[in-house]
Write a structure and sequence with these properties.
Structural Genomics Hypothetical 15.5 Kd Protein In mrcA-pckA Intergenic Region, Chain A; Alpha-Beta Plaits; RNA-binding; Pseudouridine synthase; alpha+beta; 6 helices; 9-stranded mixed sheet; single chain
Length: 235
């Protein structure tokens, strides 16, 4: 791997910034100063240092984002995407959203370049539960809870959803728990119960919980404990 790619992938800076660091003699490979950004390195055996601090290569990147409304959960679109919100150092790393949120839905989006993990989280066979907070236009009833327990038939796909869970917080607020991600699924399940969703936010994916300190549009890398939570889905 080229040394400039190695360093940019570890989050040290963009490729342009990394080239400046190399030009200024700040990068060492096996205690020798790197002279060219094209120098090849072995990420498994070489010792790479930046400002005399060893840099460990990260094969996979995991970002937690609090997605705002009017942003698309895609890598490319005519509208603003979650990728457009990322700093330059995360661009061009094949990062993508693991699952989609509707344009007008807020909340947790996991962004990664780990395709296997994304597949496992999204697969209904894995039964990874997603939790949502919803506000609706009509009073929620006990009968709605029973409808979710049975699963709800989606006409467009001719598909019966897996049993879900509806937890009523107040007359017009609830938590919704589902293990799939069909198009507008939460909204359609609630509409089946006679309710229109006025506001929707995803709070968690499995045991990965949205950091309440993240403002809308903000993101951060997962910490060590959160990465361990995700590792169980890669088994």
């Amino acid at each position: 791997m080229r040394i400039d790619k190695y360093l940019s992938n570890t989050g040290i800076g963009s490729r342009k910034e990394v080239k400046e660091y190399i030009k200024n003699g700040l990068v060492l490979v096996n205690d020798k100063t790197v002279l060219k950004p094209t120098q090849q390195v072995d990420e498994n055996n070489d010792i790479i240092k930046f400002k005399n601090k060893e840099i460990i290569f990260k094969k996979y990147i995991y970002l937690m984002m609090n997605k705002p409304q009017n942003v698309i959960s895609a890598t490319k679109d005519y509208n603003k995407t979650v990728i457009d919100l990322l700093e330059e150092r995360y661009q061009n790393k094949e990062i993508f959203p693991a699952g989609r949120l509707d344009k007008d839905t807020e909340g947790l989006v996991l962004l990664t370049n780990d395709g296997k993990l994304a597949h496992n989280i999204l697969s209904p066979k894995r039964k990874v539960e997603k939790k949502y907070y919803a506000k609706v236009d009509k009073k929620l009833e006990e009968a709605d809870i029973e409808e979710f327990k049975k699963g709800i038939f989606l006409d467009k796909e001719q598909y019966m959803t897996l049993p879900g869970k509806l937890e009523i917080i107040s007359d017009y607020e609830c938590y919704v728990y589902i293990m799939e991600g069909k198009y507008h699924q939460v909204k359609r399940m609630l509409k089946h119960c006679g309710k229109e969703v006025l506001y929707l936010k995803r709070l968690s994916i499995g045991e990965l919980v949205l950091d309440e300190n993240l403002e809308l549009g903000e993101y951060r890398e997962l910490n060590e404990n959160e990465i361990k939570i995700l590792e169980k889905y890669n088994k």
